[in-house]
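name: query_chain
kind: protein
chains: 1
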Amino acid sequence: MFPPSFSRGPLKILTRWLIFLSVLKLSYAIKDPDVEGEALLDFLTDLNDSNKRITDWDSHLVSPCFSWSHVTCRNGHVISLTLASIGFSGTLSPSIAKLKYLVSLELQNNNLSGSLPDYIANLTNLQYLNLADNNFDGSIPATWGQLSSLKHLDLSSNGLTGSIPKQLLSVPLFNFSDTHLHCGSSFEQPCVSKSEHPASTNKTKLAKVVRIASCGALALLCLGAIFTCIHHQIIYRHRMDVFVDVLGVDESKVSFGQLRRFSWRELQLATKNFSESNVIGQGGFGKVYKGVLSDNTKVAVKRLTDYPNPVGEAAFEREVQFISVAVHRNLLRLIGFCTTSNERILVYPFMENLSVAYRLRDLKPDEKGLDWPTRKHIAFGTAHGLEYLHEQCNPKIIHRDLKAANILLDDEFEAVLGDFGLAKLVDAWKTHVTTQVRGTMGHIAPEYLSTGIATEKTDVFGYGITLLELVTGQRAIDLSRLEEEEDVLLIDHVKKLQKENRLEDIVDRNLETYDPKEVETILQVALLCTQSFPEDRPTMSEVVKMLQGVGLADRWACWKQLVEAGTQEQELAVMTHQFVWNDESTVDQEAIQLSRAR
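structure:
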């Protein structure tokens, strides 16, 4: 506050000067337009946004860093573009080369075409490039070998041919699956993917050797206790679990139950002709609309768009059957479906309490968050739901995208898993895809990223990350921590704080009260679930017991001994922008908030 004597004359003059300087600055900005803003507008034009999904990139605004969607900035420069699953059908504009500070570019799961341009090589700061699931053809430009900062490259599911520049084969994470690319003349087989850093290869190999050994140097260092732990883990490593995914079940053994077949007209009326004003979210599988049926029942209508050519109704209905047979209080209930010649739609009850992600991070000022007892209850409910999918369903069902945004909350804040089975349902339509990786950045298990093969242990990893979300309230990946030179991955951030015994810095600051012992239990289970080797992770039935305190102490002590002895492998960093999974934006989180428990 200014002193009273300053309130009229000088303050008035100062205010006028500030206004004048602001107008002057704006006029200069208009005369000298933002280079990156103009580049983005040119870029968007060539992408051909026929669906008019990007509506807030306004040429009259001074900078794209103020309010443009899908754009992330740092120090006034564009560093990230997240434009996956938008429906673009154009090409890549040369204007992209003007974004000199660009670190991450996500354009996967669109319909972009043409050749991969040379000018991408001018993006010298680029670390993450995802162009998967488009229609690019031709070869990879040799100049792309100059992208020395590149850490993750995904060009899978395109019509690319020819050799891969040898420099790109040193990128820590790459995926060239479902293309006709090959790794040079000395390789007859196509290059598929790589998921671990070259520098960590020797460490990982050494870790495996030491873990298998029953004597030698490890025995000398750690004596009987370490040997016991390693022997325990070897037993887990050799246990063979038979897994059957959602597909391939005898259709005659499955019935629709009480699923309702909706007409296209019914859903048109319920959603006001699929009005944009009724969109409650957008996920990797399509838009979700809020609707009201003729009997005033509120529903959430998921209009699936993530497939190039719709298959016949019989095939779609078969996949819906596989989803509908899973019945559990902690699983999303499917009300019905609708099929037309070119539409595939799923209908769920509308859910007023939205998702865990919303309650953790996107609350409005007058809304109540989640207290500690509720978070703990959500952890148990989610575990029970996954345990049912993995160990009580026949065939087993793998979720493949477990996160806080996919955990729904009924009227009593009971956890309900949404979107299970949809990944396989959608991938079944993409007959050209042999290995389709799905999920959300930061939640992906290393072996799934590497092989494209999902198992129940893939879900266990995602569950562990979800537990960390519940405790911290944070996202699995937070790029803002780059500015503080902190770990971007939530799991690495928590491990660092946990090692330093800084529990108070781990727990969500929005939690007014919590039980430190219960938080420790949740954190220990989370870290055991997120071990790099899937064989080392517990099953979901074991997780349920450990949450109750049964068997946790011994397993945690074993894990700590291995870490202290240096035999616990380095956790493989799951890079921030992966393959074709959903970006975890606020809109995406709302897209999955569909239903209450049965």
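note: The longest strand covers residues 286-292.
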